[in-house]
Write a structure and sequence with these properties.
Strands 2, 4, 5, 6, 9, 10 and 11 form a 7-stranded mixed sheet that branches. This protein has a 4-stranded antiparallel sheet with strand order 1-3-8-7, with no helix packed on it. Helix content is 0%, strand content 54%. It has 127 residues and is mainly β. It contains no helices and 11 strands. A hairpin with a 6-residue loop joins strand 4 and strand 5. The radius of gyration is 14 Å and the shape is globular.
């Protein structure tokens, strides 16, 4: 059974850095079969993909957040982490970590989905 659990502070002050960690059990974050993502949902809005870390530690982040986002990992603890710098109240959201799968279409195109999710953690940016 794959399980993901987010952890980190629930309140961050504006201009500070938001740091969250996802602890994975039941799978390895170094597997080549899956990748590991961060997704958030601001209040009243849809899900927003933030970024992903793959088996070799390479990361890919959303262009809209690229300058403020970094994703890292600790393979000894089977954890991966998110850092979001210079936060504003607009970064208030429920933050999720998730396992990402990849499929390949008939024409060789890649498509992605998330199959396991953490329960989510509320992060509020406020002074």
């Amino acid at each position: 059974q794959v399980q993901l659990q987010e952890s980190g502070p629930g309140l961050v002050k504006p201009s500070q850095t938001l740091s969250l960690t996802c602890t994975v059990s039941g799978d390895s974050i170094t597997t080549t079969d899956y990748a590991w993502s961060w997704v958030r949902q601001p209040p009243g809005k849809g899900l927003e993909w933030m970024g992903v870390i793959v088996f070799d530690g390479s990361t890919y982040t959303s262009p809209s957040l690229k300058s403020r986002t970094s994703i890292s990992r600790d393979t000894s603890k089977n954890q991966f982490s998110l850092q979001l710098t210079s936060v504003t109240p607009e970064d208030t959201a429920v933050y999720y970590c998730a396992r990402r799968w990849k499929g390949v279409g008939a024409q060789g195109n890649a498509y992605y989905g998330m199959d396991y999710w953490g329960q989510g953690t509320q992060v509020t940016v406020s002074s």
